[in-house]
Design brief:
The chain has 131 residues and is α+β, with helices and mostly antiparallel strands. It is built from two helices and eight strands; from the N terminus they run H-E-E-E-E-E-H-E-E-E. The chain has an eight-stranded antiparallel barrel. Strand 3 and strand 4 form a beta hairpin.
Length: 131
C-alpha cells in the first residue's frame, strides 16, 4: 500500500513539474549569455504586450513576439528589412527560422535556448527581469 502511495505521489509531482509555463511578462529584461557565448553583444529589451524593443544595443530593433506553442516563440521584425539576399537565398533561410525556447524559469529569471531547428542551438543564456 505504501509503495503504491509513493508511486502515485511521484507520478502527480512529475505532471505538476511538466506543466510549468514560463512567460515573458511585460517589463525590462537583460540578457546574460552562457559562458561559451559570453563574447556575444550584451543588450537589454523591453516587453510591452506582444512587442519587444531592444535597448542599450547598437540597433535598438523592434519585434513582434509570435508564440509558437508552450514555452517557445519567434521574433518577427517590425522594421523594413534592407538586406542584399537574393530571392533564392531568402527562400533557403526561411526554412530554418530561429526561435527561442524557454527551458526553465524561476521567479524573474528565464533560461533560454535559441534554436535554428530541433537539433541545432545557436546560443543560450538567461533573460533576467529587472523591472
Amino acid at each position: 500500500m505504501k509503495k503504491t502511495l509513493y508511486i502515485l505521489i511521484l507520478f502527480c509531482f512529475g505532471f505538476k513539474c511538466a506543466d510549468k509555463n514560463c512567460d515573458l511578462n511585460n517589463g525590462k529584461y537583460k540578457v546574460i549569455y552562457d559562458k561559451r557565448y559570453s563574447d556575444y553583444p550584451k543588450f537589454e529589451f523591453v516587453i510591452d504586450g506582444q512587442n519587444l524593443t531592444e535597448i542599450n544595443s547598437e540597433l535598438n530593433r523592434r519585434y513582434k513576439i509570435e508564440n509558437l506553442g508552450e514555452n517557445s516563440f519567434r521574433l518577427k521584425s517590425l522594421e523594413k528589412q534592407t538586406d542584399s539576399l537574393t530571392e533564392f537565398q531568402k527562400a533557403l533561410t526561411s526554412n530554418g527560422q530561429a526561435y527561442y525556447e524557454i527551458a526553465d524559469c524561476k521567479k524573474d529569471t528565464l533560461e533560454f535556448r535559441m534554436r535554428v531547428n530541433l537539433h541545432v542551438i545557436s546560443h543560450s543564456g538567461k533573460f533576467v527581469r529587472m523591472q
